[in-house]
Amino acid sequence: MAMLRIVPGPVQSIERAAAILRLLARGSGRLGVSEIAGSLGLARGTAHGILRTLHGVGFVEQDDETGKYRLGAALLHLGTSYLDVNELRSRAINWADALAARSGEAVRIGTPLDGKVLVVHHVFRPDDTLQTLDVGALLPAHATALGKVLLAYDANLAATLHGELEPFTRRTKTVPRDLARALAEVRDMGWAAELEEMTVGEAGVAAPIRGQGGLVVGAMGISGAVERICGAGGRPKPMLVTGVRDAARAVSRDLGASRW
Amino acid sequence: MVERYVMSVDQGTTSTRCILFDHGGRLVSVTQREHKQHFPKPGWVEHDAMEIWRNLERIAPEAVAQAGATPDQVAALGIANQRETTVLWDRHTGRPIGRAVVWQDTRTDRLVDELAAHPQAGMVHDRCGLPLATYFSAPRIRWMLDHHPGLRERAERGDVIFGTMESWLIWNLTGGPDGGLHVTDVTNASRTLLMNLTTLDWDEELLTFFGVPRAMLPRIRPSIESYGPAREVLPGVRIAAALGDQQAALFGQTCFAPGEAKCTYGTGAFLLLNTGTEPVRSTHGLLTTVGYQIGSEPAVYALEGSIAITGALVQWFRDGLGIISSAPEIETLARTVDDNGGCYIVPAFSGLFTPYWRSEARGIIVGLTSYITKGHLARAVLEATGWQTREVVDAMNADSGLALKALRVDGGMTADNLLMQFISDVLNVPVIRPMAAETVSLGAAYAAGLAVGYWPDLEGLRRNWHRAAQWLPAMDPARRAVEFDNWHRAVERTFDWIKPES
């Protein structure tokens, strides 16, 4: 409800979680549930619930022997990459194979790198024609379905694009305002399409792969000849869109994104 | 028309899995259940055969239900199983005699040493194609007969019978004590040390040598043939194939022609090469084994090379050293450097297997200088898998006279692009990953589907096989030669580490 402009107050459990992290950052850095609950004046059950959640996201770790909590390694790596790309490939490989088998098209998984899309996984189109593996290739973000998904959910990546964007075909979106409108659409629909924007005669569909808490960690999509990807009216075939979205959701669930 | 499926049962070392496949060889549903590993003494590994049977009773109907199907939509059932694991059970009660002795179990090492000292020991390899080792079933049967009072007599009367996991499951599926079929397939029988590789039947002299009564043994049947309908779990469904798991992977990779080979990369790695309808006797430390047999057609043989430590080295890097936090990170770390920096790791954790067979060797890291970082070590970890594959392939080429043209790969490590490229580089052949990662299950399904006409022929199966990725060799030959020489020199430095007990 956009018209209800209620500003919510601070979320109590997040304040408490922050207090627990501050507490663990002090002194010996190893505390039991009772000590933490006592220090912060929380019920033991409440402290335990928050600690389990922090444990789940890797912000605290628990000692196997003593059961005491300490700050987690994930906190130290907050600024660096959230999910190792090779880990992402390992987790996605079976789903990507299944998507290629069902759609009959090549599958790629991309992650952002230096304002572009890094191809971290590639499954050949299952027709046994000669194809080359392009893992490690960089694709332009504004002209590919994979890139548009990453741009739509990553404001930092989107901020790297300004001024006139490089044209690859007559259909490449080169005006930032047009691209921004397209990205808003991607967010509304939950998937992106590319229609001869990178290569004449080629189209693609991609959807976001989400990690824990819903953070988008990559994009997964198919690409191929326009006449195979698109149906009447020049829109991607709904069956292919569903297939891509289901596969990306399946990987997301494997990565711990519960709601998607 | 009602959709029909084929079910595969993969009875593995740690779990049992049921998968339904459709006509396109695509996976429709999966159910899985782990079973307990029992380690009663150092070197002993046991499974509860009853637990494994109950797991199958539970997950097979679940897989059918998950696909929204009914048992009459299952055209056939095929079994792939952990090989060499030995079950003895009472034919009348259906109860196992103790727990199953698993392929990793080394309790028979002294027995095997005694047997090896016997003047007739030399004929074992000639007749069955396998070296005399604790790895195979016959010494386990003998050990159990020796250690359970009265068991030998019951076995001689045929009251107590033997089987590997596929025999146990087929016997139970077809009625158990009430007329269950006591059969094994040629691939599993070829891992017992008791089957004659040429006649494909139990060999009297081998039976005498190991002291195993013929009355307790199952009938040897082709791998791909309708054995009979199930009476339990999925009544009426035809049981139409059984293969050892690595042979099933060979079949699932559609390696139907001589010279075609596959390698499954897991904790260890198993490379199997189809050598056609004649068994090739190895002089380079490989095993000769049956690949598969379709009905009354001649059996297809394979050479097998096993590498003990591949993924296990990555696991050691993660769990033993704590340098990485997940296995796939090995690639990330390895890519922080351009080469191994002169460092080599030879993971001879429990000696060296093919082609060296040196049990006294132990693992080493050589070439350490202050220049070496954890990135170089990560490279050396991955390269160890590449060079070990090269050594097995060289042995196969020498034994078979067939030069490998391409290697089909499967298993978890195929997600590692750096490793797959390196394997292609050191073998100097393309490395190909197919679009179905579950090749063991797929192979069992293909075999069963073929037996009942669900798939018409091998060509039909080949058409289901699609390339998902391919890596082409790109290493400079001079560099390959230098690196291989360095690897050899590293391997030599592992020899003679464990001193003989005085």
Give the SSE order of chain A as H and E letters.
HHHEEHHEEEHHHEEEHH
Oligomer: heterodimer
Instruction: Report the sheet-strand fraction of chain B.
Output: 15-25%
Structural class of chain A: alpha+beta
Q: What form of chain B results from the Cα inertia axes?
A: globular
Mean pLDDT of chain A: 87
* Rg on CA atoms of chain A, Å: 22 Å
Q: Mean of residue pLDDT of chain B? A: 92
Unreliable runs of chain A: none
Greatest interface:
A-B, 25 and 25 residues
State the gist of this model.
With 260 residues, chain A is an alpha+beta fold. Chain A contains ten helices and eight strands.
Which helices and strands occur, and which strands form pairs?
The complex is a heterodimer of chains A (260) and B (502).
Chain A (H helix, E strand, L loop, with lengths): L11 H14 L7 H8 L3 H13 L3 E3 L6 E3 L1 H4 L8 H19 L2 E8 L2 E8 L14 E3 L4 H9 L1 H5 L16 H14 L2 E4 L6 E9 L5 E10 H4 L8 H17 L6
Helix pairs in contact in A: 1-3, 2-3, 5-10, 6-8
Chain B lengths: L4 E7 L3 E7 L5 E8 L11 E2 L1 H18 L7 E8 L5 E4 L9 E2 L7 H8 L5 H7 L8 H11 L3 H6 L3 E4 L1 H9 L9 E3 H4 L14 H7 L8 E3 L2 E6 L8 E7 H8 L8 E5 L3 E8 L10 E6 L7 E8 L3 H10 L8 H6 L9 E3 L17 E3 L7 H27 L6 E4 L6 H11 L3 E4 L4 H13 L6 H7 L2 E5 L5 H16 L10
Parallel strand pairs in B: 1-5, 5-12, 9-10, 13-19, 19-20
Antiparallel strand pairs in B: 1-2, 2-3, 4-7, 6-8, 11-12, 13-14, 14-16, 15-16, 17-18, 20-21
Outline the structure in words:
The complex is a heterodimer of chains A (260) and B (502). Chain A is an alpha+beta fold and 260 residues long. In chain A, 41% of the residues lie in helices and 18% in strands. In chain A, helix 2 crosses helix 3. Chain A starts with 11 loop residues before the first helix and ends in a 6-residue tail after the last helix. The relative contact order of chain A is 0.11. Chain B is an alpha/beta fold. Chain B has helices at residues 49-66, 109-116, 122-128, 137-147, 151-156, 165-173, 186-189, 204-210, 245-252, 311-320, 329-334, 374-400, 417-427, 439-451, 458-464, 477-492; strands at residues 5-11, 15-21, 27-34, 46-47, 74-81, 87-90, 100-101, 160-163, 183-185, 219-221, 224-229, 238-244, 261-265, 269-276, 287-292, 300-307, 344-346, 364-366, 407-410, 431-434, 467-471. Chain B has a 7-stranded mixed sheet. In chain B, a hairpin with a 3-residue loop joins strand 13 (261-265) and strand 14. The mean pLDDT of chain B is 92. The A-B interface holds A 73, 84-87, 89-90, 93-94, 97-98, 100-102, 122-124, 126-128, 131-133, 135-136 and B 24, 26-27, 325-332, 412, 414-417, 435-437, 466-471.
